[in-house]
Amino acid sequence: MIKFDQVHKRYPGNLEALQNITFEINAGELIFVTGPSGAGKSTLLKLITAIEPPTHGTIIFENQNLSQIKSAAIPYIRRKFGLVFQDHKLLYDRNCYENIALALEINEVSINDVRGRVRAALDKVGLLNREKSMPISLSGGEQQRLAIARAIACRPSILLADEPTGNLDKKYADEIMDLFYNFQDLGVTVIIATHEIPTTSKKHKQLYLQEGNLIKITDQ
Ligand SMILES: Nc1ncnc2c1ncn2[C@@H]1O[C@H](COP(=O)(O)OP(=O)(O)OP(=O)(O)O)[C@@H](O)[C@H]1O
After folding, report:
1. CA distance 120 to 186
2. What is the count of structural domains for the chain?
3. pLDDT, tens digit, for every residue of 69-120?
4. Model ipTM over 0.90
5. Which atom of ligand 1 lies closest to the CA of 18?
6. Does residue 141 belong to any structural domain of this protein?
7. pTM, entire model
8. Cβ < 6 A, ligand 1 pocket
9. Start and end of every ABC transporter domain (predicted)?
C-alpha cells in the first residue's frame, strides 16, 4: 500500500532529516513510528501524506508514485489520509458539529450526507451528546477524540497521528489509543508517530528512527 525506496529528505539549510529510508506498509496494519526527538518521525508522516516531497527516492502509495505526482493531484491523494496531531488543530470558533461538517464539505461530501456522517463520527468517539459544544469546553482527551472523529468522518483508508497522546495523562491516552485500535479493527491502516510505544497486545510493526536513519523494523 505504501512503499518507500531509498528515500531522502533534505530541508532548506541542508539538514538531511531522513536518509535512505526503505520500508513497506500493508493495508490494515498498525504501525508505530518511534525514535527520539528530531529523529525524523514527523517528516516521515509528511512524506507519506505528500505534505512534503522527498528530495530523492521513490514513494509509492496505492500504485502511484508520489515523488512524481502533479500538484493538481495532491488534494485527491490527501483525501485518503486522516490526520490527527498532538495539538488537535481544531477550529475554536466553531462547535464540535461544525468542525467535522467543515472537513466533510472541504472533502466535497454531498450536503445530504454531512449530518449523518458527522453524527456517526461523533458517536464512534463517544461525543454525540457534545455536538453543540465549543471545543474549548472539552477536556484535552475529548478534544483529541473530536480531532479523531473529524479525521475518520472523511472515511480515510489511512489514519495518521503525530504524538496523539503527548499532552494527555495515562487514562485519556489509553482511551485515545483504544479508539485507534478500534478503527484498525475496522480495516483502517493506522500509523502513529510517538516517542514511546504504548503497551499493547495488538499485532503491530515498529519503525525505529534515529538521526534520520531507519535503524530497525520489528514485527510484534
Ligand atoms: N520545515 C523544516 N525546515 C527545516 N528543518 C526541519 C523542518 N521540519 C523538521 N526539520 C528538522 O528535521 C529534523 C527531523 O525533524 P522531525 O520533526 O521530523 O523529527 P521528530 O522525530 O518528529 O521530532 P519530535 O519528536 O521532536 O517531534 C529535525 O532536525 C528538525 O529540526
Report:
1. 15
2. 1
3. 888 888 888 889 999 988 888 999 999 999 999 999 998 899 999 999 999 9
4. yes
5. 14
6. yes
7. 0.93
8. 11, 13, 15, 17, 35, 37-43, 195
9. 2-220
